[in-house]
User: What shape does this take?
Amino acid sequence: MNSDSLDRFLSKIEIDDKTGCWVWIAGRFKDGYGQFSCEGEVLAHRVSYLHFIGPIPEGLHVLHNCPSGDNPSCVNPYHLWLGTHRDNMEDKVRKGRQKSRAKLSLEDIDMIKHTYGSKIMQQGELAVVYGISQAQVSRIISGARW
Ligand SMILES: [Zn+2]
Assistant: This one.
């Protein structure tokens, strides 16, 4: 990120005194992640990681670990860590972000099919992550009505 981009980036954050989170106040994706286009990245927290910490190895995800709990809109590089897709899912389960999920979105369905199809997780694990029954997972994967 060059200095112009950095200025633009910094103008879109607000630091939360209590948590130290750099809260993204500009456009956000539906899941709360900040939107920032820079050098092929579109996720603000990834841009932040790349700029302040360093390269993101292929296959790894930039995950949050904010002191006050998971804050997807936070771009403080010191609240970010690298993990696998599995870490990401387990992290979400641990932090209970999926607990209140009542209905699955189309993206969830795609993600379930993809995660199972690429053997990242078993049906039982997906059921826990998405807060649904294993039978539902099985129906989703087989393409049946769920
Ligand atoms: Zn944070």
In short: Helices lie at 3-10, 44-52, 85-95, 106-117, 123-130, 134-142.
